[in-house]
């Protein structure tokens, strides 16, 4: 087996045996003692600033990385920013990389059920014991960085900054061959942005976190595009490293800002609809069948076990990112069977995830108008329900009126509820807004998620056409996570 990527008349050759099975990581039992220790660490970390409060600087993270010996420089990375589709795109990139026999590290946020989901190695969440151990190992260095920041009049590291440092330390310790990193909020000042990624990915940008990122698409895009950075090696200016930006379909205002940043960073750009995209998408049992235009050519007969046109678009972005990482280009395709294997293995929990049949119950983490619109389109395109009941619980700092407006044409009736999150909007306040959009008779209220789901199922079972009715639980990542636990789904 060759140790190098090579190109010949037949295309691109990677140093792997594509016929060898992908090794699955060993599964270790999680004991009650493990969960107690995890809860103790989470209680400690929760004393820090939450991830919805940021101080726009990388100074603390850069100091901490220096104290830790710069673990973020020990692996190549693909960095993913955007407003919607980040987590699904990250999971697709990771699945493809694993199919190509790369040991992967993955960060996503926020988590659905357990904090350990945020840090994954080889596709598996960090075991609680490893999560606790990693924190204890870096804790003294975090406290040193805290002290230095406070001496300068700044805050301690936030919980998200600590979790990012834990991710990079765990990846270096594994070690991983490639890290696939999801931005937390924004990009330019996001804690994850201490890495110097080989490939930067920008998923669709919309208005979200406007109190931190700006009130216009241009302002938000400027923050997101901050992950596209120069990669010149000042010690070797004759052979600069690859620097590629993969850009999903964008509003023209956002695209202009992204392209301007790519020019400043001297990054090559591949855009959805130009250099890559979705050629065709047809509904299939359990997902959809795709033909994708990649950077190297057309990839046919791709089965993706996720529903919705937005997931097909995410798949095109993910493929282009992996192609760019491996150096694929015109006439130099990746092995198509391996690509098919990677996409077929994709899981994206809480993204139009079916958790019950008759009546069908789906869970979706849509939490802003753009995500709600994608959810509605996916339900209308991929399924044929006579009637859908929505169970909606939102966070008070989100555009929940915009979410309700997008969901109104989709749901016949809606059950307003709330999660256990301290940021949750009161169910009765949500119902007041819902009545203005849906009308009085289509709105119900249940002040806990279990009772809301129970009521929605009862409503879906009314009448003679139960098999054509369904329930969708949505409104926030927290709502999706609590619903997964309610239906007995394990964290993934």
Automatic annotation (TrEMBL):
Please state the Enzyme Commission number of this protein.
Answer: 6.3.2.12, 6.3.2.17
State a GO cellular component annotated for this protein: cytoplasm
Which residues are in coiled coils?
A: none
Q: In which pathway does it act?
A: Cofactor biosynthesis; tetrahydrofolylpolyglutamate biosynthesis; Cofactor biosynthesis; tetrahydrofolate biosynthesis; 7,8-dihydrofolate from 2-amino-4-hydroxy-6-hydroxymethyl-7,8-dihydropteridine diphosphate and 4-aminobenzoate: step 2/2
From which domain of life does this come?
Answer: Bacteria
Q: Does the keyword Ligase apply?
A: yes
Enumerate the spans annotated as Mur ligase C-terminal domain: 350-466
Record keywords, A-Z: ATP-binding, Folate biosynthesis, Ligase, Magnesium, Metal-binding, Nucleotide-binding
Co-factor requirement: Mg(2+)
Q: How does it assemble?
A: Monomer.
Q: Which PANTHER family match?
A: DIHYDROFOLATE SYNTHETASE-RELATED, FOLYLPOLYGLUTAMATE SYNTHASE-RELATED
Family named by the database record: Belongs to the folylpolyglutamate synthase family.
Its name, as the record gives it, is: Dihydrofolate synthase/folylpolyglutamate synthase
Taxonomic source organism: Corynebacterium durum F0235
The lineage, from the top, is:
Bacteria, Bacillati, Actinomycetota, Actinomycetes, Mycobacteriales
